[in-house]
Structure formats: structure tokens, C-alpha cells
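ARCHIVE ENTRY
Sequence with per-residue C-alpha cells
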Amino acid sequence: MIVAAIVLGLLLRRLLIRRLVGSVLDNWITQTLGALIVVIPTILGLIGALATWNVQLVLHFFGGSKAFNPDNLLNLSGTVVQTLIIAALGYGIARTIRAWTLRGLSSTRMDINMRTFIARLLYFIVVSVTVISILLVWQVPVGIPIAVLGTFTVTLTVALQDVLRNLIAGFYILIERPFFIGDQICVTAPGMPKYVGKVEDIQLRATILRMPSGEEVSVPNIFIFSNPVLNNTHYGERRSILEIGLQTDSFTREETNSKLLALLKGRREVENKPEPAVMVSRYIENKIYFQLRFWVKSGQIIDISDVIFEIHELLPGADIAVIEPI
């Protein structure tokens, strides 16, 4: 009987999932419904098997004493089942709405930060409605949890002040939009390490960056909120400055300048406008230092290393340092 109930549940689950796969429902809610449809016949099979083995035990369990009053037991079972169904459906619907919102708004001109903010706001609204519905199923007045929440507000605020500050900073970043998902940013502060990476996600507590070395770092939003943020990819091009030092007897103004400018004009990632320029910056003893300024397309910053290598081949005795990008 138990085996037959399980087989029946698995058959029903297969039919249900086959019907729901590819529909508008989120995969999580589809799998949850599939699990529920297996549990119900399995429970009935267990009860039937127990009754076949010892019917008196089943009768005693369901009606033999006041502690196991059948009405109370059925009511409690129904409440538990309703709670599980509401929780599963609520969470699945919240995930589905979040996915729909992100996918539906992606075809509009709305930026990705605002789309993410709206999707998460709708997600939390559905989850809140789900929690309230569960409280109503258990006949818990909504005023009670609100009163309890109000009682512990001060304590939670003091204990979780850093978390709350990060939440507020996360909302600010999503609304104010100092940068977007996909931008490369640089965040630093005096006495703190410098974080440079591509923005992978803007969460409510932290911003996820992918470092150029391939690592992932979670930067607290309050750190970004309270410090300068350099957006490396906001514009279509980016200036680079190399400082080159040469012995004065190896430097000829016209010849050196023309060689360097010809080298840059031969590279396709270097922008022609604004034009590259060479400017003398300082003299130290027997050395002259000058800056080579040029603009490269956003996303081509890595090619600066190739430029440095070619300058080294052109001027073997030169000292070369990168001034920008920092």
C-alpha cells in the first residue's frame, strides 16, 4: 500500500511538472507543487498501511482520547497544510514576479539599477503579504507582531545599526544611480585598500565587484556611500597618462615627440580626438621627465601595457610610469 501510494504520487508529480514546465510559473514553485502532490498520497498510504496492520492503534490515535481529538487534529493538520502551501506559493510567486519584472522592463529605456530596485520592492511586498496571510491562518492578530516589532525596534536599531546603514545606502545607490551594473568602478578611502572591479550586482547590503584578477569582493554599501567612487567606464573614452624619464643627452624634443606620437597613432584603440600630446613635466639633475597623454576607448585599458612595451623598445633607457588610470 505504501509503495503504491509513492508510485501514484511520483506519477502525478511527473504529469504535473510536465504540464507546468515551460509555463509562466517560476521553476521553484513548479518543483514545490510537485513535492506537495507526492506528499499527500504518501501520507494517505502510510495511514492506510497502519490501519491494515493495527486498526485499533489508528482508532485510538484519532479518537481514543481527548488529547487526540479528531476535530482538533484535523484542524491542526489543515492549518499546517495551509501554512506550507501559502509559504511555498508566496515565495514562488515573489520569485516569479521579480523575474517577470526584470525581464519585462529590460525592453524599456529604464536603467538596470531602477529595474532591480522595482523588482526587489515587489518581491518584498509579496513576501510581506505572504507572512500576513500565514498569521491570519493561525488566527494571530496582526497588531501583535507589530507591537512586538515596535518593542524591539530600539534594541534592533542599536544592535544592527551597521546593517541598517548598509540597507539605506543600498537604496540610495539604486535610486541615485552613481554607477550601473556592468560599470567598472574604483572605491578607496584613506588607510583602506582600493577596490577596483566590474559591478556584478547591487544588493541591499553590499555591492558585488568582480576584480580584474577574477576574484569576487563584497563591498559594504556604506563604504561606497561615504567615500568617493571613480566610475572608469561612464564615458566612451578614458584618458591615460604615462610619465617618461630620459637622460637629457638622449632627449631630442622634435625627434622624441614625433616618434612617440607616431607610435600612438598606429594603434587602433587610441583615439585620434583628442589628439595625443607630449608635455614636459619636470627636470631632475640630468634627467628630463615628460608626460605622454592620450585617450583610449572604454574597456581597452589593458592595452596600455602593450603601449608601455612598445615605448620601452623605442626608448630602451627610459623610465616609464603610469599616472592615469590610477
Remarks:
- The chain has three domains: 2-139, 164-231, 237-324.
